[in-house]
Design goal:
The chain has 215 residues and is of the alpha+beta class. Helix content is 27%, strand content 27%. It starts with a strand and ends with a helix.
Length: 215
């Protein structure tokens, strides 16, 4: 699977070119975002720090994207995740995963969340526009996002939404996990800021169709 499209206030198409050794070519964030734009950093932290120890195919696609952009994943993990990190894992019922990152410049703690686009988007009150500014998520913008998700889906793309929320001490309990017996925690349900919507394609290798015909 490969991340082929990103909506971050505007739609971006990620080139899918390979090197001679079949590895994907490097990409430069500056090709898509001006220098200093916050979205690349949010994507890198959100993927680096909010991924399970045994990633699935969708997670691997997101990891490949940030690795193509020369992201220093180990530095993000070292700087922002403690041994006793607070994480709310993905499940088929939750359809989302969240991790609280620490030592985030200017804010201290920040929850990063990713999951099914319709679900995560509907928990957002704000979004980052094409210039990287945090804006109120109006009905018009929300409708535009719905169109983006529908358009990606019509291209057989799986859509994943990345979002964040700045966290203060004691927010939703000492461990930010209230209510303790709920599948989805209150901290994940509202006042999120949407970073981007990713379109992820299941790339069929050239040899697969021939192999299927021989079965």
């Amino acid at each position: 699977m490969k991340v082929t499209n990103i909506w971050a206030g505007k739609e971006l198409v990620i080139p899918q070119t390979e090197n001679e050794d079949k590895s994907m070519t490097k990409i430069e964030w500056e090709t898509f975002f001006p220098k200093g734009h916050p979205v690349p950093g949010h994507i890198e932290m959100g993927v680096s720090c909010n991924t399970a120890e045994k990633p699935g195919a969708t997670d691997k696609a997101m990891f490949e994207l940030i690795e193509r952009a020369s992201c220093k994943v180990d530095d993000y993990i070292k700087n922002h995740l403690s041994e006793h990190k607070i994480r709310f894992p993905f499940s088929s019922k939750r359809k989302r995963m969240s991790t609280i990152c620490e030592n985030v410049e200017g804010v201290g703690k920040r929850l990063h969340i990713k999951g099914a686009s319709e679900i995560v988007k509907n928990c957002c009150s704000h979004y980052l526009d094409a210039d990287g500014n945090r804006q109120q998520l109006t009905d018009d913008v929300n409708g535009n996002m719905d169109n983006v998700i529908h358009n990606f889906a019509s291209q057989a793309l799986r859509t994943i939404c990345l979002a964040y929320k700045d966290v203060t001490d004691g927010m939703n309990g000492p461990k930010h996990d209230e209510p303790a017996d709920a599948e989805v925690k209150d901290i994940e349900k509202k006042d999120l800021t949407l970073i981007c919507i990713l379109g992820i394609k299941d790339i069929v290798r050239i040899e697969v169709p021939d192999a299927v015909l021989q079965i």
